[in-house]
Amino acid sequence: MVLPVYVYGMSVLRKRALEIDEDYENLDTLIADMFETMYASEGVGLAAPQVGKSIRLFIVDASPMAEDDPSLEGFKRVFINPVILGEHGEKWNFSEGCLSIPLIREEVTRQTNVRIEYYDENWELHEEEFDGIKARIIQHEYDHLEGRLFVDRVSPLRRKLLNGRLKAISRGQVDIDYRIVYPKKA
Known about the structure:
Elements: E1 5-6, H1 27-40, E2 45-47, E3 57-61, E4 76-98, E5 101-119, E6 125-131, H2 132-145, H3 156-170, E7 180-181
Parallel strand pairs: 1-7
Antiparallel strand pairs: 2-3, 3-4, 4-5, 5-6
């Protein structure tokens, strides 16, 4: 089932998500729904807070970017209770976007490599290192679990310039092809 995406201004996007265990109810269904939601909204990553669940879970499938970067072919993963063990390498800028901040892209500086520990959908523990776009996608989605958004990583001046557009998103005043949930004003 395609779920609505929670957008800028929703409090769930600003909370540090909680760990889950193997008994988390309907986890397989949630993961399947998240993949369906991500594909329907043309994303390459989606974190549980973006669908209203404050849990430490995100998914990625960068295969759609494989035409430009063949190393992304088949890069599809489920990350449960991930912990970033380290980030290293050169810092590099890349234009990031986010399903929770539609129609805004900004240059974000991140390190080229990330080492992460996580459980997959079968509750098998992994410790892996990723680089380049894979690392960036992981870092971006991991930020969601920490209550951070990519716009938090741009300069204060740039963020101020985006303020009007961010407010419009939080009011649901955005023309996109997927369902959203935005803060309701009383």
